[in-house]
Amino acid sequence: xxxxxxxxxxxxxxxxxxxxxxxxxxxxxxxxxxxxxxxxxxxxxxxxxxxxxxxxxxxxxxxxxxxxxxxxxxx
Length: 75
Hints:
Elements: E1 2-3, E2 12-18, H1 22-30, E3 38-44, E4 50-55, E5 58-63, H2 64-67, E6 70-73
Antiparallel strand pairs: 1-6, 2-3, 2-6, 3-4, 4-5
């Protein structure tokens, strides 16, 4: 499995597993970030430290540290 940070703008991937724990895991689940969720990479910020993703009709920015904890698969 690859990390969400490994993908480029325009790529579409699907959540395989989230490696968060505690309150951050609850936050991701409340956003609807569960296994099988389709994610589109919208835009990278400066130095790729911040990236905007679109899933479930919403755009959200994750820091690299957060995106590294989301394992995804293609199609």
